[in-house]
Specification:
alpha+beta; 4 helices; binds zinc ion
Amino acid sequence: MWAGTPKKFQIAHSISKRQADWFQCTAEHLMAAAEGGADSPANIVAACKFCNSMRHRAKRPLAPDSYKAKVRRRLDLGRWLRLTKNMSPEV
Ligand SMILES: [Zn+2]
């Protein structure tokens, strides 16, 4: 993830600005605000823009611990987000 400007991240990973935009650091509610999640430090974590915008879109969103485990499994396999040319992330 990056904060501030994506340029260094973009160069380090040889990706386009559009692709790098998905990895911007955001503040994510573990329990969504729409589901009653509080704006408190205990309910807010750092998450990339992709995770923040996509996790709650699933039919049955994973609980925070399950989502974290999913991310770790994919990172261990060296394939978190597979980026396509037109940047339709596949997870
Ligand atoms: Zn993420």
